[in-house]
Amino acid sequence: MSQITVTLPDGSQKQVESGTPVSAIAAAISPRLADAALVAWVNDRLVDLDHPLSADATVRIVTSKNPEALEVYRHSTAHLLAAAVTALFPNVQCGIGPPTDEGFFYDFVVERPFVPEDLAAIEAKMRELADAGFAYERQMWPRDEAIAFFRQRGEPLKVQLIEEKTAGQAEVSVYTIKDRDTFVDFCVGPHVPATGKLKAFKLTTTSNAYWKGDAKNQPMQRVYGTAFFTQKELDEHLARIEEAKKRDHRRVGKELGLFTFHPWAPGATFWLAKGTVLYNTLSNYMRGVLIPAGYQEVKAPIVFNKALWQTSGHWDYYQDNMFLVKSSDDEEMGLKPMNCPGHFLLFGSEKRSYRDLPLRFHEQTPLHRNEASGTLSGLTRVRQFSQDDGHCFVMQDQIASEVEALIKLIQRVYGDFGLSYAAKLSTRPDKFLGEIATWDDAEASLRRALDASEQSYTLNAGDGTFYGPKIDFDITDALGRKWQCGTIQLDYQMPERFDLRYTGADNAEHRPVVIHRAIFGSLERFIGILVEHFAGAFPLWLAPVQATVLPIADRHLDYAREVVGTLARAGLRAEVDDRQEKVNYKIREAQLQKIPYMLVVGDREAAEKAVAVRSRAKGDLGARPLDTFLADALAEIASKQLS
Ligand SMILES: [Zn+2]
Ligand SMILES: [Zn+2]
């Protein structure tokens, strides 16, 4: 037996015999590590613990403490799920079963759809297999034997996968649980060493699926589950899912009467009165941010001739996502999926000088993207939407200051909504257009801007677009979910395509650089995020109805209307609940509608020009003069107080 050298993460080295399994290295380090080990890195490959070491290598043992372990753990739980399903339903065929960000799933061809009782039985079987502590074992089978095995076993989808993925290979990798009769799957792994490692898992739901996600293919049933290293993490995750369901903007939007949809306009929102107030509050808020920052609001057309889309490149690269129409004189036209090309035409519509730069356009007109109907969902995946879209035309040496100003706007806006956020800088990809020196200069400008605005960021090296580097902003909502909203993208390419020029101080013509930027991103999507972030209980400045006045008896109705009049004249969104119901009932209703203030008025309040104030969040606040309530409410709105 030849000796090989194993290098550990601390730099120390061990001599072992060739063929020694990775698990022996863990055991030699410490019994505790051997016990906690799940998989291991051998050089830059993640492998099973029984992987034999055959050459000098660096080895790092992976335990549940390492972030890469969770994916392996969930993949192993997906195999456990398939083992349980095949044990309980001998005629099913297995599809694929990968880990996901939220857990894992496995697709099956079944004789009848799964029902909730099936999930309970499958989970119980999984638990039984986990308790038995069966080993996961990797085996290399001759390819034709593997194909014959799965074919004979009635697993044509596995046969198809092997044929597609292993062409030219002599052997294919399969994983068993206990033995091939208990469970075997075509899989490259790696996996945890034994089912006993799988502690905290839960099957969550089933859905319809298709082989390879294509509706033309065989229908399947997908079983979703999730898995964590501890029961506590699993419980917290399930509680978050419950909370997310309660906050689902589609549900809350219906309860609060914000918006609705109709099958004859898929992916296009009908904004109801209250939703329209919210929408306009946000779009006007953004105007209030951008106009003082030097932006000009513009409105470009929605339908453009094909020639524009050919110039921008959308005709060749984005046509499938566009709605195309014909004009009465048979011209091919397309609805705009983004505002940029319209802004380039606007820039080019006049002779521009260096004194005009930076020139900043902002536009909120509707955009249309022809998304597949199956992907549409509430406000987050739509076909029609508006953005707080903007394009800044700058000179190369204005990039850093312009981006710094933009980052400060973004910080201020997310701060106003109480959203935490993180920035990512994406730099030159392998395939790029333009000169390396220009890219280096642009990236340095972005870094300077990030530093100058004290914005921490992570680096996504090589993740920029082919036309320029960018900074993206992910916001984190109240449930800890991340959403990419804001973006700042430098673009050297479109000014070329549209032949944009300005006259420099040297009297010569130059190309401007374009900065594509958005803070909300899609207004529709941002509202969906806000609805879930606040669970519909918007802060006063955003609430569609800010106060409801509740008369105790009919004789107080006149005074109630007087109160609404006073509030409305001061700019507050108030209404009176004049229904013939008890005040307590109206309070409950207003509470469910998440109205920030309920103002109860009776004899005393009418006599004293007062209101008895009830806050959605803080309960009864007692009676006070109407003027005092109004002044306090206006101050709360002006400061955009969050609760
Ligand atoms: Zn697998
Ligand atoms: Zn753009």
Give a brief outline of the structure.
This protein is α+β, with helices and mostly antiparallel strands and about 650 residues long. The chain is globular.
Describe this structure in words.
The N and C termini lie far apart (71 Å). With 643 residues, the chain is of the alpha+beta class. The chain has an 8-stranded mixed beta sheet, sandwiched between helices. Bound molecules: zinc ion (2 copies). One zinc ion binds next to loops.
- Number of E-state strands: 34
Radius of gyration: 31 Å
Q: Report the biggest beta sheet as strand number plus sense, adding barrel if it closes.
A: 8 strands, mixed
What gross morphology would you assign?
Answer: globular
Measured as a percent range, the helix fraction is 25-40%
Tell me which ligands are bound.
zinc ion
Sheet-strand content, in percent, reads 25-35%
Spatial ordering of strands, largest sheet: 15-19-22-29-26-25-23-24
Q: What is the helix tally?
A: 20
